């Protein structure tokens, strides 16, 4: 009680109400990840602590460091969700990092370097859930449609970017004939498109 709080590494609810939890630890983990990827750069640069607090409250977040894979910055942004219940648990983080290790090609997409804070959308319809998958097979397994992975691969739908552009006709054409399965895939594609749009936004 009464001790100093490291503002730049601390979740907003921990700063405001001293509510520390595994969710606030996830926020701090995201900041440390940013430090590692920026080779020890100071989070929020020369901004004052008060400016950091105000910027975070207004929805601004750290941009990706130079040369940072989009998937890792995606994880950082997930850790920096304003609502602590929306942040990943550490078991989710470990699982996601393990998937990246097993799918190194997912690290090839880099984020364009910017030197200013980026604004996180706060409209419920604009905030993607930052899904914890890194490949088409991973995505299909997450919606329990893994039985169609060979259909997707054979038809050339091998990346999340390509899959996100699929139409209902494409889904039927590759052999998904059950109406319930078509609906499940179409519904998930809407979330996937938001996810891919977000990746494109932080890249530019």
Automatic annotation (TrEMBL):
Domain SAM: 135-195
Keyword Nucleotide-binding tagged: yes
Keywords carried by this UniProt record: ATP-binding, Membrane, Nucleotide-binding, Receptor
Membrane topology label: Single-pass membrane protein
Predominant location: membrane
Source domain of life: Eukaryota
GO biological process, one term: axon guidance
Localisation: Membrane
UniProt domain Protein kinase: residue ranges: 1-111
UniProt GO MF annotations: ATP binding; transmembrane-ephrin receptor activity
Record-linked SUPFAM superfamilies: Protein kinase-like (PK-like), SAM/Pointed domain
Keyword Membrane applies: yes
Entry GO terms, CC: dendrite; plasma membrane
PANTHER family: EPH RECEPTOR A5, EPHRIN TYPE-A RECEPTOR 6
Name under which the protein is recorded: SAM domain-containing protein
Protein species of origin: Pelodiscus sinensis
